Amino acid sequence: MRRTSLITILVFVTGLCIGYFARGAVGALQQKYTHKADLAAIEKLHQEDIEFTLSQDYKRLMDIWSEDAVRFMPGSPPDVGKQAILADNEKFAAEYPGFKVLRYAAKYKNIQIEDGLACEWGEHESQLIGDSAS
């Protein structure tokens, strides 16, 4: 009787260990594929940003921003939220009605993804032409 109990306990503990490690391996594999899917979606947004900026399709450009997005522009306070970004874009368009994008390229660095949130920074180069309203 005593040997049966010891064997049962050993089998049970072995099963727990196998389950624990298998779950960790499956979780890591799932996280790897989720991470790849997230990176692919982010790259799609990067391409849409370039396409919509070059075509100056401001409606579609705003559609790629999430409601809680934050945009940092040099020398300005951050634009917090989609509506703030839209307001800043509209202000710029009013100040520069003849504005045209001739060339636009972006290089993104340090993309971090955690718990469904992504953060990155990038350098944007562009060639613009336009006149101010005044």
Q: State the helix count.
A: 3
Fraction of residues in helix: 55-70%
Mean pLDDT rating: 78
Estimate the strand proportion: 15-25%
Structural write-up:
The chain has 134 residues and is α+β, with helices and mostly antiparallel strands. It has helices at 2-55, 58-63, 82-95; strands spanning 70-71, 79-80, 100-114, 117-129. It has one domain (2-64, 96-129). The protein has a two-stranded antiparallel ribbon. Strands 3-4 form a two-stranded antiparallel ribbon. The longest helix is centred in the first third of the chain and has 54 residues, at 2-55. It starts with a helix and ends in a 5-residue tail after the last strand.
State the gist of this model:
The chain contains three helices and four strands, in the order H-H-E-E-H-E-E.
Question: What are its keywords?
Answer:
55% helix; two-stranded antiparallel sheet; 134 residues; elongated; alpha+beta; single chain
How does the SSE layout of this entry go?
Elements: H1 2-55, H2 58-63, E1 70-71, E2 79-80, H3 82-95, E3 100-114, E4 117-129
